[in-house]
Amino acid sequence: MKRLLICRHAKSSWSQSDLRDFDRPLNKRGEHDAPEMGQRLAARGLRPDLICASPAVRALATAHHYARQLHYPVDEIRSNPVQYSATVPLLLQLIQQVDAAVNLLMVVGHNPESTALANVLGALMIDNIPTSGVVALDFAVDNWQQVATGKGRLSFFDFPKNTGG
To answer: What predicted TM-score, i.e. pTM, was given to this entire model?
Structure first.
C-alpha cells in the first residue's frame, strides 16, 4: 500500500509586482493556513517518508511548514526544478521514480496541475484544490512504478475552509 498526498501550495502574495512568479512568497493567510494544514495532517497520524516540492518560493515555504508540523527534517525535502512547470504526465513520471521503500509520499506543487493529477490518478472530479489543500490517495501497489491513472482511492480531501476537517 502506498499513500500519496497531493498538496497545493499555500496562498501567495501578489503585493510585489516586480517579482517573478517563481519568487512570490506566502502572504499572511498562507503563513497561517500552511501550519494549520500541517497540524491537521499530524492529527491524522501522518508522517511522510519523503516530501518533494516545487522549488518555487511559495511551494517550498509550504513544504517547510508541513515538514515542521509533521516532524520531517526540513533539510531532507527534495526539490526538483521540473516540478515548477510540470505537466501531469511528467509529475506521474516523477512519482513513479520514487524508491519503493517510501510508503507515504507528499508532493507540494501548483495548480492547475495538482488538481489535474488528483483527478487523473484518483478518477475524481474535483473542480479545484484550494490553496493549502491536500488530497490523499491510496494505491494498492507494492512500488511507485505501479501507480497509474485511475488506480488511486480517495482517502481524504481537506483544505483550510473545510470545517469538517
So the answer is: 0.95
